[in-house]
Write a structure and sequence with these properties.
Helix content is 72%, strand content 0%. The chain has eight helices and no strands. Helix 5 packs across helix 7 (126-140), helix 6 (115-122) crosses helix 7 (126-140) and helix 7 crosses helix 8. It is elongated, with a radius of gyration of 45 Å.
């Protein structure tokens, strides 16, 4: 306690000067605030309304621009036929002139095997597989493996 009173007594002039400066600044700020509010109250009123409507407009725009996520569940009956129940159309194979080996290559293509895997499985060279594939593409009038498989299934060849 003795230290606090000694500190105040020693710095009395500084404390009085600091407090008086704070009071003067507070008084000036009050006068400025009073002057601004009194003279510019219409501007503050209009500005506050503008701010409120701006915030409301931004909120509404964000709300309206947000895409609505809608999930739809569609149930559809799909009839699956047993691949073994569909008879292979030997007349169509003969009409197209597809050989037995080409038919084997086509079946392995439909199973999803690559040319290298087909060559290994049939014990033939890679070039032979490519030759059979290109001949099949010509006979089926297609350009890609997927097209060949799709057309062969449609024609009941495989």
């Amino acid at each position: 306690m003795k230290i606090g009173t000694h500190l105040i007594a020693r710095n009395k002039e500084y404390l009085i000067y600091g407090i008086s400066m704070a009071l003067v600044l507070f008084l000036l700020k009050m006068l400025v605030a009073h002057f601004i509010v009194y003279n510019y109250r219409l501007d503050f009123f209009i500005g506050s309304i503008a701010i409120v409507f701006t915030v409301l407009g931004v909120w509404l725009a964000l709300k309206l621009m947000k895409p609505k996520v809608e999930t739809r569940i569609v149930e559809k009956e799909v009839y699956v036929t047993d691949p073994d129940s569909i008879p292979i159309d030997h007349a169509e194979i003969a009409r197209l002139g597809i050989s037995k080996r080409e038919l084997e290559v086509l079946q392995l293509i439909s199973d999803g095997l690559s040319n290298e895997e087909i060559a290994e499985k049939l014990f033939i060279s890679l070039n032979t597989v490519k030759t059979h594939s290109s001949t099949l593409f010509q006979k089926l009038d297609v350009k890609r493996r997927t097209q060949a498989v799709e057309k062969a299934k449609r024609l009941n060849i495989i």
